Amino acid sequence: MRQVEAGVWKLSVTVPSGPGGRQRRVHRTVHVANARQAAQELASFVSEVRSAPVVPTKETHTSVMNDAVARFLSEHLREEKGREERTIRSYQAIHDKWFAPGLGRRLVRDVDRAAIDRPSAGCAKPG
C-alpha cells in the first residue's frame, strides 16, 4: 500500500498463481481520505483476490483433456489430497472409458457442458 498523491492509494497483493510456487501480483488504485481507510480497502482487496479463481497458466490453457485429467489426478488427488494409487487408477479408467474417446484430444478451453453432453462428442453413455 502506498500513497500516490493526496487521497489516492495504490494497493498491491501477491498471491500464488498455481503449482510450482509461481506468484502473481495484482494492483488496485483507490480514492480514500487517509491511510486507515486505505488499509481497510487493502484488507478487503486481499480477501477478494484470495477467493478469486487462479488464473490458468499458458500450459493449462493449451492442454488437451487427457493431459489435464492426468495432471489433476497426479498433482491434486495424489499429491495434495493423498489419494491411494488404486483410487487414481480407478478415476483414470473412468476417464479413459467414458470421456477420453470423445473429448480426450480436445483443448480444455474448448470443452464446456454442451460438449460433454453432446452425443456426437463420442463419449460413451451409460446404458
Main sheet properties: 3 strands, antiparallel
Q: Measured on Cα atoms, how large is the radius of gyration?
A: 21 Å
Low-pLDDT windows of residues: none
What's the helix count?
A: 5
The amount of beta strand, in percent, is 15-25%
State mean pLDDT (0 to 100 scale). Answer: 84
Note the overall shape: elongated
Total discrete domains: 2
- The amount of helix comes to 40-55%
Strand arrangement, largest sheet? 1-2-3
Element order: H for helix, E for strand: EEEHHHHH
Number of DSSP-assigned strands: 3
What structural class do you assign from the helix and strand content?
alpha+beta
Task: Give the N-terminus to C-terminus distance in angstroms.
Answer: 59 Å
Could you outline the blueprint of secondary structure elements for this entry?
Elements: E1 2-5, E2 8-16, E3 23-31, H1 35-51, H2 58-61, H3 65-80, H4 85-103, H5 113-117
Antiparallel strand pairs: 1-2, 2-3
Helix pairs in contact: 3-4
Task: Describe the protein's architecture and organization.
The protein has 2 domains: 2-55, no CATH class; 59-121, no CATH class. The protein has helices spanning 35-51, 58-61, 65-80, 85-103, 113-117; strands spanning 2-5, 8-16, 23-31. It is built from 5 helices and 3 strands. Strand 1 (2-5) and strand 2 (8-16) form a beta hairpin. The protein is an alpha+beta fold. The longest helix has 19 residues, at 85-103.
